[in-house]
Specification:
Chains A, B: This is ArsR/SmtB family transcription factor. Chains A, B: It comes from Prauserella salsuginis. Chains A, B: Keywords: DNA-binding, Transcription, Transcription regulation. Two copies of one chain form a homodimer. Chain A is built from five helices and four strands; from the N terminus they run H-H-E-H-H-E-E-H-E. The first copy, chain A, is of the alpha+beta class. Chain A has one domain: Winged helix-like DNA-binding domain superfamily/Winged helix DNA-binding domain (Arc Repressor Mutant, subunit A, Orthogonal Bundle). Chain A has a three-stranded antiparallel sheet. In chain A, strand 2 and strand 3 form a beta hairpin. The longest helix of chain A is centred in the C-terminal third of the chain and has 29 residues. The radius of gyration of chain A is 19 Å and the shape is elongated. The interface between A and B is large, with 66 and 66 residues. The structure holds a DNA duplex (30 and 30 nucleotides).
DNA sequence: CCTATCCGTAAGTATACGCTTACCGTTCGT
DNA sequence: ACGAACGGTAAGCGTATACTTACGGATAGG
């Protein structure tokens, strides 16, 4: 999270927007189709798509009256790279902590990782 | 975003929490130290740390009156894996779209990826 | 031209959320 | 025992946000 004020990270902080991205990961979809798959109104989907588009995570094309949305791979790749950078940095920091803790008493709570799924 | 209702993804949707994680990626820190580095009050930091802890992204140990927080590598790794899975899936979907579009007329808007940093 | 479909956007609303100050329990040093 | 430092939590507050309905422009078919 180097760019911790990043629009894209803000964007995926919302569960409905993550759901939209999950739908689009499978295939491109029109707004109405997305709305059919989600428990929110179509205008809500439009608003979310606008956020995602502004964050560079999705792109659109028009087909008649329809707007077809798809993921923007570059945007998703950027997220991935940022998380990777962060992860590498965290590993370095973690090793440092482990070394420090080899030489002193500690009182540790909540050591167990909490699984996300 | 397979687990799109995931607490951890919700958690990092907030810029202050991302900032906290960035600080902790460098080294473990006490609450007060974190508060010194961020433009929010110490109780605000506590509240954010609680969210991060419940999401499995940080862990704590006590040292006297101090609570020292650090990143939880397992939690961060889980995010990374989920994003990786999502990315692979998106790539598959993207290839499918590219194939579909080779055989039909399209009208594309906003094709350019928007850089995050 | 008329009608239907699609979808962006405006406006409104409820509420979640991120912030603050205040309080109080815990720990430690004197 | 007392005071200082630390930090969790309660309570309050302002506002951003995610939702809704309504409106209207664009497109396409008859």
């Amino acid at each position: 999270m180097e760019a911790y004020e990043s629009e894209a990270w803000d964007a995926i902080g919302d569960p409905t927007r993550r759901a939209i991205m999950t739908c689009l990961a499978g295939q491109e979809l029109a707004v109405g189709e997305l709305a059919d798959e989600l428990p929110v109104s179509r205008p809500a989907v439009s608003q979310h798509l606008k956020v995602l588009k502004n964050a560079g995570l999705v792109a659109e094309r028009t087909a008649g009256t329809r707007r077809i949305y798809r993921l923007n791979p570059a945007g998703v790749a950027a997220l991935r790279e940022q998380l990777e950078t962060f992860w590498n940095r965290a590993l370095t920091g973690y090793r440092k902590v482990a070394e420090d803790r080899n030489s002193r008493t500690r009182n540790t709570t909540d050591e167990q990782p909490k699984e996300e799924e």
